[in-house]
Structure formats: C-alpha cells, structure tokens
C-alpha cells in the first residue's frame, strides 16, 4: 500500500542541513553510516528522557537521591547514563525555599548525555546575560513566577562542571510509578526554567 500522507515542507534550516550533508558525503568528508549512527545516538540513546529517569528515581529512592546530591557524576554513571559531557555533573535540588537555574555564560556547556542537545535559547546571548543579571525576570519570560521569599540560585556550567536541577516532586503524585513520574519531567525543569506539574 502506498503511503499517501503528505509531509510538511522542510524549513530553510532543514534544507541547508540536507544540502550540507549531501555535499560532505559526496566529497567523502562524512561517512553516511557514521552520520546515521551519530543522529541515532542523539535521537534515541541520549536526551532528556534519561535525565527524567534520574529525577524520578531520586523522587522515589531516598538512598539514590542522597548519593545523587553527594556525587552526581558517580551516581549517574552507576545507572549507565554517563558520557563525556556527563563526567562532572553536580546536582542542585529545588526546595520550597530555593530555586536553581543553570546557565553557561561562556558558551553552552551542558550535560548532553542526560539532557540531549541544548535548546537554542540556552545558547543565546540574551539568556546567558539575563540569567545572571535578572534571573527572576528571565524566569517570568518562561512563565515561571516565583514568590519573593524563594531564593534563586544561578549555577554557571563550564567545561569542568555541568549542573543538573533536581526539580521538586509535584504534590498528588504519590501513587505514580517511576516510569509515570519520569513522563512528567521535561528538559526545562532540569535546567530550572520550569517546574514539574502533576498530571491533570
């Protein structure tokens, strides 16, 4: 049977990527199998779904959480999720009194192995500047308005240290499994520009 579904037209950036890929492959500078392996890795083997699993386990296993906060890198490696960009991960816990926000003021250092590719806004100059200068104002732009009595701590990632936010577990999720909890956690909550909400 012929697939009659129409695909949406490619965006300008997608067309440019395809053209660049074709030229590099044709000139023998890029091996198609290697390229496919890299793409598969970032689409399926690393990404925020892994970080979400770490968060959900920390919410349900106090011993794991204690180890995660004491030594993020070793604990993440313990569950097989370490990578080159995840070898020096420090985990900062959000509490009712404290909210953590991650930025990289120099470039875009980021724990790719558990969060996947960094979003474009994370790499942008306005985000990097505002996170340090006016974190509360920045968070409002992400529709996250914190009470005045909540301290905002900004953590600056670099080549030696990558930060991961352990968001607060939302109320009303006591009966959910680890898998269901992981499904609530998104990348932005692990950067600190969002909080995790309970399912409706």
Could you explain the architecture of this structure?
The protein is mainly alpha-helical and 200 residues long. The chain folds into 2 domains: 13-44, no CATH class; 47-191, Nitrile hydratase alpha /Thiocyanate hydrolase gamma (Nitrile Hydratase, Chain A, Alpha-Beta Complex). It is built from 11 helices and 4 strands. The protein has helices spanning 12-26, 32-45, 48-60, 62-70, 72-78, 112-115, 120-123, 125-133, 135-141, 178-182, 187-191, and strands at residues 89-93, 98-103, 151-156, 162-166. The strands form 2 sheets. The protein has a two-stranded parallel ribbon. It is globular, with a radius of gyration of 19 Å. The N and C termini lie far apart (39 Å). The relative contact order is 0.16.
Summarize the structure.
With 200 residues, the protein is mainly alpha-helical. It folds into two domains: 32 residues, no CATH class; 145 residues, Nitrile Hydratase, Chain A.
Secondary structure topology:
Layout: H1 12-26, H2 32-45, H3 48-60, H4 62-70, H5 72-78, E1 89-93, E2 98-103, H6 112-115, H7 120-123, H8 125-133, H9 135-141, E3 151-156, E4 162-166, H10 178-182, H11 187-191
Parallel strand pairs: 1-4, 2-3
Helix pairs in contact: 3-4, 4-5, 8-9
Question: What Rg do the Cα atoms give?
Answer: 19 Å
Helix content: 40-55%
The percent range for strand residues is 5-15%
CATH topology of the largest domain: Nitrile Hydratase, Chain A
The ordered string of helix (H) and strand (E) elements is HHHHHEEHHHHEEHH
CATH class assignment of the largest domain? Alpha Beta
Report the oligomer: single chain
How are the strands of the largest sheet arranged? Answer: 1-4
Tell me the total number of β-strands.
Answer: 4
* Main sheet makeup: 2 strands, parallel
Low-confidence spans? 1-6
How many domains make up the 3D coordinates?
A: 2
Taking the alpha carbons of the first and last residues, their distance comes to 39 Å
Overall 3D geometry?
globular
CATH architecture of the largest domain: Alpha-Beta Complex
Helix- and strand-based class?
Answer: mainly alpha
Q: Mind telling me the CATH superfamily name of the largest domain?
A: Nitrile hydratase alpha /Thiocyanate hydrolase gamma
Number of helical runs? 11
Query: What average pLDDT do the residues reach?
Result: 88
């Amino acid at each position: 049977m012929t697939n009659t579904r129409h695909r949406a037209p490619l965006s300008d950036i997608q067309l440019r990527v395809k053209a660049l890929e074709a030229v590099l492959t044709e000139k023998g500078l890029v091996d198609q199998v290697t390229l496919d392996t890299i793409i598969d890795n970032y689409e399926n083997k690393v990404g925020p779904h892994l970080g979400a699993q770490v968060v959900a386990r920390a919410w349900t296993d106090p011993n794991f959480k204690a180890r995660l906060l004491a030594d993020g890198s070793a604990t993440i490696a313990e569950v097989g999720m370490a990578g080159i960009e995840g070898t020096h991960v420090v985990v900062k816990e959000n509490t009712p009194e404290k909210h953590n926000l991650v930025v990289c003021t120099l470039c875009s250092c980021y724990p790719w192995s558990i969060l996947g590719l960094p979003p474009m806004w994370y790499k942008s100059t306005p985000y990097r500047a505002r996170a340090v200068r006016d974190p509360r104002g920045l968070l409002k732009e992400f529709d996250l308005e914190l009470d005045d009595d909540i301290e905002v701590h900004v953590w600056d990632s670099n080549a030696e240290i990558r930060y991961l936010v352990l968001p607060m577990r939302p109320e009303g999720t006591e009966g959910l499994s680890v898998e269901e909890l992981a499904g609530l956690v998104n990348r932005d909550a692990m950067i600190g520009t969002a909080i995790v909400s309970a399912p409706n």
